[in-house]
Amino acid sequence: MQFDPFVIPFNIGLYFILIYVVVRSIIWFRDLSRPDKLRLQRGFFGIAFVQSLKEIFLESLIHRKILKTNLRLGYMHMSLAFGWFLLILFGTIEADIFGAKHLNAPYKAIFFRFFNPEHGRIGFEAAYGFLMDLILAFVLSGLFLAVSKRLWSGVVGMKKTTRLKTTDKIALTSLWLIFPSRLLAESFTCGAYNSGSFLTGSLGSWLASFLPAQQLAYPFWCLYSLSLGTFFVLLPVTRYMHIPTELFLIFMRNSGIRTGDKTGSFSEVETYSCSSCGICIDACQLNFSAGITNIQSAYLMKAIRNNDDVSEIAHNCLLCGRCDQKCPVGIELSPIRMIQRRLDEPGNDFKNIYKGYFRTRQTTLQEKPITSVNYDFLPGTNPEKADVLFFAGCMTHLTPAIKNSMVKILDASGVNYSFIDEQGGVCCGRPLMLAGQDKEARELINYNSQMIWKSGAHTLVTSCPICYKVFKESYYLDVEVLHHTEFIKKLVDEGTLKLNFLRKRVVYHAPCELGRGSGVYDAPKELLKHVSRLEKNKFEDENSLCCGGSLANMKISSQKRNKIAQDAAAELTKDYPDILATACPLCKKTFSSATDAHVADISEIVAEALIEPGIKKNIIKQNSTIKELVKI
Amino acid sequence: MSKHVIVIGGGVAGLEAAGQLSKAGIEVSLIEKDSLTGGHLNNWYKLFPDRRHSSEVKAYLDGISLNDRIRLLTGTTVEKFHRNKSHFSIITDKGKELSADAVVVATGFDLFKSEKKEEYGYGIYDNVISSSDLEVMFRSGKIVLQNGTVPKTIGIVHCVGSRDEKAGNLYCSKLCCVTAVKQAIELREHLPASKVFCFYMDMRMGGAFYEELYREAQEEWAVNFIRGKVSEASETIDNKLVIKVEDTLAGRPLKMELDLLVLMAGMEMSEGGKKIATLSGLTTGQNRFFSAADPHYGSNRSNINGVFYAGTCTAPMNITETISHARAAVSDVMDYLKESN
């Protein structure tokens, strides 16, 4: 029997982590809601399983998405993950083929060289040894990058890297020790027995030329086993838990499970799947414009895992969604942040790291109690009947140029419309939702819904992407909700609205709530192309910047907000366009005080391009309230 | 050999500084971007707190600044600014090179661009005007709405672009309150049938005789002061303005119909000043005004030896303060020239 006491730490670690992951998975499965359990069961026996295997290979091993964003960082992750995987796979095969017998205990594959020191001198054995050395070199090259990244994040093309807690540091050290100690252990053994391939063999014979290789090999085999064992035991309380958890996440996601609006197994699995790669930190404008470096999603995930008080982190965010787009693991970061906003202040019940191994009970945090709100003072709803409703929203009322343009466009289009909040309306509810006060928001939603139902309209048009998102997602309406850019584009496509071409160079800024938030990217751009010369810029579609005005951040100072706005505006107006166009009254307002460039909403540009129709088709309002617009 | 000083800016501070320097026997070149000297004074009707005509102050400034020692370069801007030890040279947009032993920067202020507070509808609604537009109306003697009729109810909004984090101006412009009081009285004087409402956050009546003027406005002219910030203005079909405001003393929201809305635009670092800052390397503070070498005893000195500040390019000031500040700048310039001899 091939056994040596030095393998014990490795064995303890390995069996511990295997049992731990199984138990943890069972708990996660148990805590899933019934529909999600069914989804997972169905997914396990369906196409989702194959998809997941493919995704695990591409994302967990190859790290395709990181490679796409950042080649060097991707290579680092790939060489460590895929390289280690290959080392285990080919090591197991090696032990199976060349070992004393088939179907060995795992340690025999890991410490194969120790038990077979003279292996691999000739023929096929030598070729196989060459392959194993090649894989080890591959892993070591990634490790070299990882160590350099810690010391100097610029090495892998990143501006910032994540800060670590103590257990992470110990785990990181043991992880770093694994591969160099394997290299040295194998080299010493090879040196002593004159075996090994280009890496272990050459290094071994060189070391053996001036060191007692025979005696030195054993301590390094011990170190190798010990660092593996330590790493495995610490894994559950460190960020490296993402290694097993991500597999689970991929299965769950491919089975159709989503974060939703409450804590649960899935959001917890997502939280543990974060590897703290730091891509979200580089994407965050609070970081690169405002110099706020402790609230990014990677830190939020870490704080949730550690049961820290996250309310400060959760609320200091523009919810612009840039990190959601960039996250290589595909974690729904903004929804998780929103869940944290809805929760009451958490208590630090799990300070002790030993308890950190099982802290699934953190999901029992209390939801915020409803504040005593009373909206009885609101007037009764008695709207006029119309086909199309225009809901300007409070921000559009604060930017009257947009309001006037919309009325002018609606009048010119001849549709039977009603300006539902012309005399001031009730808030759409989104600001309360962003503050985590969903129940209060529901009151406002009910009020507005009644108003919309009673009007008998089939279309609801809004100028404000903030309203648009909430009308689309949180209202139960049987009307078509359109942002004004979609509506105007429809009118243009139908031929109802005729527009001139303006000789203006325009850069388009996609508002967060409209673009990343609601997926409306094309309608505004096509409309702008129809009336002006739309120019390209570096920050388009999913990569758009946030103007900084977002209602979602309740912690940031106005100075930092202005800094974000100024930086974003400067970036967008680099080529001195005639107009910086946007499709959101809040973006317009924020940019207006941050740049000297001319900022305008698309509706203003369209209103200026209007060709007045000879006869209006279906005029309802005899006395149009609209007068001359500000010239663009 | 007589010394030569360049004064940049021909407003109140620039004229005063140039006049005092010339009195002391210094050769002065005064650069002014407009065709006329006098700056904002040219647009103003009467001055607070005594409501004397602005032309009286202009006449004084012309009196001291029109002499042989002062070379006036109106309609001229600075394009290049060089310093070589104790020697300065400035190249103007007309290609002229001026050299001097010292420079006085008196680039003044610009009024906050009220269009930036779009919620008040300046430039969008006909009858929303700025404090400076109203002065022009006073000068012409005709205070009428766009359609030619006389306004009956008039609102005055304080703090437009001052004490406003969102507008990027944290500071108080400190003169808009008293300007509002002065203009409210003048409106009542011109239009005795009108009602005037001032919407303020705090009444900052810090100058000599300001408080007295505020009292007079209430007691003799029946101007209404409502504590609260106007949140937005809109326009009705019959061309009236509707404003939303919270009366914070009564603790309730108000909606009010007005004929005319006057915005008390705050004071900002001037565009000209910003240009000089980039050309010369003079430092500016967080409020974007030039930052003085010492806030207590060096408000005329800059980070460049030989360059001095006069007037509102360093902070909002009234005319009295501006003139004193300009004289103090001259005193610093004289000391500097003596030492550098």
SSE-based structural type of chain A:
mainly alpha
- Tell me how many strands of chain A there are: 8
Alpha plus pi helix count of chain A: 29
Helix content range of chain B: 25-40%
Shape of chain A: elongated
**Structural class estimated from helices and strands of chain B:** alpha/beta
The unreliable regions of chain A are: 347-353, 614-632
Protein model, in words:
The complex is a heterodimer of chains A (632) and B (341). Chain A has 632 residues and is mainly alpha-helical. Chain A folds into 3 domains: 5-34 and 61-240, no CATH class; 258-364, Alpha-helical ferredoxin (Fumarate Reductase Iron-sulfur Protein, Chain B, domain 2, Orthogonal Bundle); 388-609, no CATH class. Chain A has helices at 8-31, 34-44, 47-62, 64-69, 71-98, 106-110, 112-115, 123-151, 166-193, 200-208, 213-234, 242-254, 265-273, 279-283, 285-288, 297-305, 311-315, 322-326, 333-342, 394-397, 400-413, 430-434, 438-455, 465-474, 484-494, 522-531, 558-572, 585-592, 602-609; strands at residues 388-391, 417-419, 459-462, 480-483, 505-509, 533-535, 579-582, 599-601. Chain A has a 4-stranded parallel β-sheet. Chain B has 341 residues and is an alpha/beta fold. Chain B has 2 domains: 4-108 and 270-339, FAD/NAD(P)-binding domain (3-Layer(bba) Sandwich); 114-267, FAD/NAD(P)-binding domain. In chain B, 26% of the residues lie in helices and 28% in strands. In chain B, the strands form 6 sheets. A 5-stranded parallel β-sheet of chain B has the order 5-2-1-9-20, with helices on one face. Chain B has a 5-stranded parallel β-sheet with strand order 11-18-12-13-14. In chain B, helix 1 crosses helix 7 (319-339), helix 3 (131-140) runs parallel beside helix 4 and helix 4 (176-190) packs parallel to helix 5. Chain B is elongated, with a radius of gyration of 22 Å. The relative contact order of chain B is 0.17. The interface between A and B is medium-sized, with 21 and 22 residues.
